[in-house]
Amino acid sequence: MKHLADELTAFLDGALAPDERARVEAHLGACAACRAERERLEKAVALLGRLPEAPAPSPTFEARFQARLAAQRALPRRPRLLDLLAWRHLAPGLAGAALAASVLVYAGARHRADERSMAEHLDLLESYEAVASVGVVERADDVQVVAHLDELGEGRP
Amino acid sequence: MASDPDAALMLAFQGGDASAFRVLFERYGRPMVAFCHHFVRDGARAEELAQEVFLKLYASSARYQPTARFKTFLYRIASNHCLNELRRGEYASRRAADPDADADGAPLDPDALAGGGASPEESALGAALSREVQALLARLPEKQRAAFVLARLEGLPYEEVAEVLQTSVSAVKSLVHRATVSAAAALAPYLAEREVTP
User: Fold this and answer.
1) Residues A9-20: b if buried by 16+ CB within 10 A, e if exposed
2) What is the mean pLDDT of residues A67-94?
3) Do B38 and A48 meet the contact criterion of CB atoms below 8 Å apart?
4) Contacts of A15 in chain B (CB under 8 A)
5) Which 3-state string (H, E, C) describes A122-157?
6) pLDDT tens digit string along B115-161?
């Protein structure tokens, strides 16, 4: 007989549908090991209910929040990365990056290995150049977006 | 969520009613500090984190859609923020240097403890339980920790925990079960001598 696992805690928490609950009750009626486990978990849950409350916030909590909020509101709004990725913002950068990449490819014609590598990653190079030109690649999340720039169809002419 | 008065407040704030945001802060400020405290075990840092949750709420208010309960939305911001805080590791190393900083020291507001008039035995049990649970939370994997805090300590139903953590209810069942089994093991010295409270 397979013992109860996840459903035992859900049973104690009243989180089972009626049919699941009936199945657990039937199993508990026939399995001493699961009854013992149920009793152990039930005691633990009851004990957790006796934890003291967390400390209340200090008297200055709200005033300090209002000060931080005022400071946040005083900052100029920083555009979100996806806003900046709109085609109209990217077009000049992409054009420049494509030109720069072309020059690089031409200059590297004497180094065939480098050329091959650059050609393989030309799209990514263009994307990085373009985004870096508007100064928004700061976080790992942003880099992920950049890595998938070619999947952004919206806003392209 | 027309029946959710907090969602209505958030929509009012979207519409320019600044007092609606203040009401939400007054309603959820303290619960947010308590929630963040479960993650960082430091009163001052918990307050900072709770404030940052509300700063994020303020900043993202324009994107709020009342498709879920406001409380779920808020706890999602708070869970992500607290888990990010833990991931940064900076805090963990600070705690490692001073592991008992807030574990059994004086609370910020002594009146806030449950049962201000509790017996010495009850107070001692509460303090011991706090230490055990804090140590347990520090050991749990982050998803288990978040599910345990939300379901077991904050009392959210599994469905809401699933919404907050953006996972399935069956995943929540598993996370809460594993964390509860760990809690039972951690609290074993206290379980042997106690009967289940009905």
Assistant:
1) bbbbbebbeeee
2) 71
3) no
4) 157-158, 173
5) HHHHHHHHHHHHCCCCCCHHHHHHHHCHHHCCCCCC
6) 455 788 888 888 899 889 989 998 999 899 999 999 999 999 999 99
Residue of B nearest to A8 (CA): B177
Contacts of A75 in chain B (CB under 8 A): none
Per-residue pLDDT reduced to its tens digit, A75-84: 876 665 655 5
Instruction: State the smallest CA–CA distance between residue B67 and chain A in angstroms.
Output: 23
Cα torsion B161, B164, B166, B171 to 10°: value is: -20
In angstroms, rounded to a whole number, what is the distance separating the alpha carbons of residues A21 and A95? 64
Alpha carbon of A75: minimum distance to chain B alpha carbons (Å) = 12
Residues in chain A closer than 8 A to B171 (CB atoms): none
How far A13 CA sits from the closest chain B CA (Å)? 9
Q: For residue B31, what are its two tokens?
A: 């619960």
Q: Write out residues 146-165 of B within 8 Å (CB-CB) of A.
A: 151-153, 157-158
Average pLDDT estimate for A120-131: 48
Confidence of residue A132 (pLDDT cuts 50, 70, 90): very low
Instruction: State the residue for tokens 């494509």.
Output: A98
- Do the Cβ atoms of B6 and B24 come closer than 8 Å? yes
State yes or no: pLDDT of A152 exceeds 50: no
Does the distance separating the beta carbons of B55 and A68 come in below 8 Å? yes
pLDDT at A86: 58
Structure ipTM: 0.77
For B117, residues 6+ apart whose C-beta sits below 8 A from its C-beta are none
